[in-house]
Amino acid sequence: MSNYETMKDRMSSHFLEYDQEKMIRKFALEHDEKYLYIFFVGRKYRINRITGGITWSVDEFQTEENANYNEAMTIYDVLCNSKEYCHPAHEWVHIGSLSTVRGGNLANDSNFFKDAGKKFDGKTAELAKACERLHGIKMEKDDVAYQLEMFSFLLVVLRFWESDDEFPASLQVLVDRNILEYMHYETVMFAIGHLLERVGEEMERK
């Protein structure tokens, strides 16, 4: 078992130490006796209330897949560690400008965004279609710009500019100024990584 799987299994046990009824009230979660349900970047997940394991499905759980590390760790952090009175500020900030951040993988000039921008270059139509499939709301600026639901209670904005003769392709993600009330900074990396992965999946879907 990889270190990632070990950490994910450890967190599934840790999840069971928390008050699930409080989670349900806090985030208005769909639930039943066996599971809590949550949407994360356009995909429905359920958390087993006995084991803490997380799976996702596109067909109301007639079939299901285990959540990967980025998916699971983001969901666990939000449900277990978000501040008691977390709330959106409804103010967009560049992800690299969060007040507690000093550099790191999500800084403005990091390879994380440069590499992602290269993957989208020359594919603005496909990128826009992927955002539409994720029920994004189009914003009237930039080559591609959409407001997307990370969670139903926490939105993000994806902005992309094609390369030209002077500048390389550029990708930006704007987040709510209060995002760190919902998750740790390290978890933001997992969440944004998953967001871009989901966009990539939708771009490839026929």
Keywords:
alpha+beta; five-stranded antiparallel β-sheet; TATA-Binding Protein; 206 residues; DUF3786; 2 domains; DUF3786 domain-containing protein; 6 helices; globular; 36% helix
Describe this structure in words.
The protein is an alpha+beta fold. It is 36% helix and 23% strand. It folds into two domains: 3-81, no CATH class; 92-204, 2-Layer Sandwich (TATA-Binding Protein), CATH 3.30.310. The chain has helices spanning 3-15, 20-27, 69-81, 111-120, 124-133, 185-204, and strands at residues 30-31, 35-40, 43-48, 54-57, 65-66, 92-94, 137-138, 144-151, 154-161, 170-176. It has a five-stranded antiparallel beta sheet, with helices on one face. A five-stranded antiparallel beta sheet has the order 6-10-9-8-7. Helix 1 runs parallel beside helix 3 and helix 3 packs across helix 6 (185-204). The mean pLDDT is 90. Residues 20-196 form the DUF3786 domain. It comes from Blautia faecicola. InterPro entries: DUF3786.
